[in-house]
Amino acid sequence: MINEEIRAREVRLVGPNGEQIGIKPFREALQMAVDANLDLVNVAPQAKPPVCRIMDYGKFRYEQQKKEKEARKNQKVVDVKEVWFRANIEEHDFQTKLRNVVKFLKDGDKVKCSVRFRGREITHAAIGQRVLERVKTEVQELSVVERQPKLEGRSMIMILGPKTGQ
User: Model pTM greater than 0.70?
Assistant: First the structure.
């Protein structure tokens, strides 16, 4: 809240340079802000009495937006990439898909490894389990298992996350 939006009889006032002015009646604090050609900003409304600061509110908002933008720029959005395997996958196909898993993990993305069972393959879920266990052992130095292999419907799913501190 700024200027006339503040609803308090008296406020603890902080000057434009951060110095403590003391407890003042609201009207007097507002007049001091107007005289300095600045705004009276309520920085701690829950305090008794509320703490208000004399500052340029437009400049303050601009600085806050700049800080938020910088913080968003430094964030890394983690995607979940999915790699499908088959229960009876051939060696070359397995290596190709494994290269994709390694690439995704090195890029810092999570990887959802899935084995899709078709037809009567579902009766041999242990074969799909072995495929996922092999993937896990092949990339154990790059990843951490976030979710162990688990059968969900006609798919067995395992989630790998990149190891931190690389």
Answer: no
